[in-house]
Structure of Uridine phosphorylase:
Amino acid sequence: MAPILLNSMGNEHSDYIQSDVSKTGGVCEESSSGQHGRGHPFVCVGGSPNRMRSFAQFIHEQLELPGNAADIRDICEGTDRYSMYKVGPVLSVSHGMGVPSISIMLHELIKLLYHARCRDVIIFRIGTSGGVGLPAGTVVITDKAVDSFFRPQFEQVVLGKVIIRSTELDEDVAQELLQYSSELPDIPSVIGNTMCTHDFYEGQGRLDGALCSFSTEEKLEYLRKASEAGVRNIEMESTVFAAMCRVCNLKAAVVCVTLLNRFEGDQISTPHNVLLEYQQRPQCLVAHFIKKHLGLIS
Ligand SMILES: O=P(O)(O)O[C@H]1O[C@H](CO)[C@@H](O)[C@H]1O
Ligand SMILES: O=c1cc[nH]c(=O)[nH]1
């Protein structure tokens, strides 16, 4: 039974997510239907509030929970920072864009899980990304989260010094997700390295930002080097997500769909309805994983 580790100070103060553990009935309490008991709680995080609300509604339906999926409530409505939904044994949380934003949410979420006495948590980041040599709509299950220099590490600056943390993710969860993707229709998936950048434009080799300090040739050379380093997609949260989950003993996976192939351009010109369908692919895959683990499907 792997406990969630908290910092040595055991700091209790949290001023970002005012969600009250009692309101959630404890993430790990038996769900109202009593269907799922105290098994593994599952946590899914993603950048956009709307997407994490629709994921919560989707999971509510998939787990056939009582009540109306449309009635789910944001238990973080007191703050403007994040949205959080508890659906049976699943917590769905938004985190905004970029390492700083998800990092703050993860501190608060991990403290919440600790106080709810959760054990054996499995946490998924379900997001979107830019593909590197992959067709749009491909789901990338992250092997290693790497930084802009393709290193499997996250640099945390603390008191003016750099702490380097490993970004290893749970290999078994990744392999299991890949296996399930082959059982599901229309979820083309690969396992590969995910590069996490601190910027969407220049930091990802885009030529179409307000600033651009490089040529098309230099952009393509960088993307080729990334590809040779095993990078298959680019997003903006995976390294700190992997690092913090690892330090806190949380089994973690990153499952992001690609919205475009960056070798073919920078703009996300895919029609909105197609983008929505793409964004559902990681949700379907993770929902399938959860249902398998809850014994709802054999
Ligand atoms: O789709 P989400 O989860 O927001 O993730 C990706 O989308 C945002 C950029 O468009 C960044 O947060 C990147 O990581
Ligand atoms: O190209 C992309 C698409 C989504 N998210 C990113 O960070 N980059």
Observations:
- The first helix runs from residue 21 to 24.
- Strands lie at 42-46, 84-87, 90-94, 122-131, 139-146, 153-158, 161-166, 189-196, 231-235, 251-261.
- The radius of gyration is 19 Å.
